[in-house]
Design a protein that fits this description.
Elements lengths: L1 H42 L1
Amino acid sequence: MKDCCKDGCHRKEEKSVVKKWFNYIIYAILIIITVGALALQLFD
């Protein structure tokens, strides 16, 4: 495990940061769609 971190630590961090923000964007879009659909149902 230590050898793996020594070899590609920076690459893994960059990929995990991009993956983290990608997941945040996906979750935000899903929440916006869900809240929008709920608002349309309540106020229509």
